[in-house]
Design a protein that fits this description.
The complex is a heterodimer of chains A (114) and B (115).
Chain A lengths: L2 E3 L4 E5 L4 E3 L2 E3 L4 E8 L5 E7 L5 E3 L5 E5 L4 E6 L8 E9 L6 E3 L3 E6 L1
Parallel strand pairs in A: 2-12
Antiparallel strand pairs in A: 1-4, 3-9, 5-6, 5-10, 7-8, 8-9, 10-11, 10-12
Chain B lengths: L4 E3 L2 E4 L5 E6 L6 E7 L5 E8 L2 E4 L8 E5 L5 E5 L8 E8 L9 E2 L3 E5 L1
Parallel strand pairs in B: 2-11
Antiparallel strand pairs in B: 1-3, 3-8, 4-5, 4-9, 5-6, 7-8, 9-10, 9-11
Classes of the chains: A mainly beta (114), B mainly beta (115).
Chain lengths: 114, 115
């Protein structure tokens, strides 16, 4: 079975500073990887996804993530955060041939401070 | 266009009562998913539908949980004899199909509180 680990439950960062949210997964088969963002009292919104090809994936709002197969990681980065990036971020993995079912990590709360 | 909608947005019930949660997927989306988000935990997969069929019910936590989908559109998640541990946010998502990797679009969720 696959699993997703987000080691950091909370990440505080000052505005305009860079940030990295960590995600590691385990799976015995090929995977697809996703990052979703959840703003307060809203549903999840897709930030970016890795399906195949280039390991560096760019998403919305200036976020990017790099798929590292050897380290089974898919860390999310942004070079300069804004107050509006305060939200909860979820990493998810889907298995090829898995019927599109996603397995989510426990989430990382990003808090951007002035 | 209209996104995934869920109703009610909040539901407070007493232990032992039955509840029904509704999901309206995006028009034309054939696949529909239910997840549960408990405090301090990630999203837990419950069940998904392709059309009106549910090929994977593996995430339903007990036989008190059931779901159906009619007309390839609206879905209802029913929890019978609710327990306090059922308190969570129940999220619904839909996608064009289940041929991976279709993007899943999420609704705002139903917050269920069992007293």
């Amino acid at each position: 079975a696959q699993s997703v680990t987000q080691l950091d439950s909370q990440v505080p960062v000052f505005e305009e500073a860079p940030v990295e949210l960590r995600c590691n997964y385990s799976s015995s088969v090929s995977v697809y990887l996703f990052w979703y963002v959840q703003y307060p009292n809203q549903g999840l919104q897709l930030l970016l996804k890795y399906l195949s090809g280039s390991t560096l994936v760019k998403g919305i709002n200036g976020f990017e993530a790099e798929f590292n197969k050897s380290q089974t990681s898919f860390h999310l980065r942004k070079p300069s955060v804004h107050i509006s990036d305060t939200a909860e971020y979820f990493c998810a993995v889907g298995l090829t041939g898995g019927g599109n079912k996603l397995t989510f990590g426990t989430g990382t709360q990003l808090k951007v401070e002035l | 266009g209209a996104g995934v909608s869920q109703s009610p947005s909040n539901k407070v019930t007493e232990k032992g009562k039955d509840v029904e949660l509704r999901c309206d997927p995006i028009s034309g989306h054939t696949a529909l998913y239910w997840y549960r988000q408990s405090l301090g935990q990630g999203l837990e997969f419950l069940i998904y539908f392709q059309g009106n069929s549910a090929p994977d019910k593996s995430g339903l936590p007990s036989d008190r949980f059931s779901a159906e989908r009619t007309g390839g559109s609206v879905s209802t998640l029913t929890i019978q004899r609710t327990q306090q541990e059922d308190s969570a946010v129940y999220l619904c998502a839909s996608s064009l199909g289940t041929s991976d990797p279709n993007e899943q679009f999420f609704g705002p969720g139903t917050r269920l509180t069992v007293l």
